[in-house]
Design brief:
The chain has about 140 residues and is α+β, with helices and mostly antiparallel strands. It is built from 5 helices and 5 strands.
Length: about 140
């Protein structure tokens, strides 16, 4: 069974972050530039939350606010489950499914060390299943 550490090894653990006082528009520009769907919110080196595209859509657009005037702190998600590099992929998939979320912050020694997305989890699951299928095919053919 694969764990989060294996995802972070494959994709890297570079954490892109903004300050909570950053305007949403600036955070969105950074997300677009980096081609990411979420951004970590950090203040004085401490994790505060995560701002996602979903936060933007539901808390800015649908409420008639403007991204140029609204601060990231006003829309970020702060109640996401936290996982560790040792957590298994199936546990992450269950957390994401139960909470209807697409991103999980990864923590090691109380410090954020990465973010995984539902896409990362699905890719690992597909890869894992492909390996099992290949092993079974080899067994059947021998």
């Amino acid at each position: 069974m694969k764990n989060v550490a294996q995802i972070l090894t494959r994709k890297g653990n570079n954490v892109i972050s903004v300050d909570p006082e950053c305007h949403v528009l600036d955070a969105l520009k950074m997300m677009a530039e980096k081609n990411i769907g979420s951004i970590v919110v950090m203040e004085n080196g401490q994790y505060c939350g995560l701002m996602t595209e979903r936060d933007y859509a539901r808390k800015i657009i649908l409420r008639g606010k403007t991204s140029a005037e609204t601060k990231v702190a006003d829309i970020m998600s702060t109640d996401l489950p936290k996982i560790s590099p040792e957590d298994y992929i199936d546990h992450c998939m269950q957390l994401m499914s139960d909470a209807n979320i697409r991103y999980l912050p990864v923590f090691e020694n109380d410090q954020i060390c990465g973010i995984i997305s539902i896409n990362d989890v699905v890719k690992e699951t597909i890869s894992d299943q492909k390996q099992v299928i290949d092993i079974l095919n080899n067994y059947i053919q021998s």
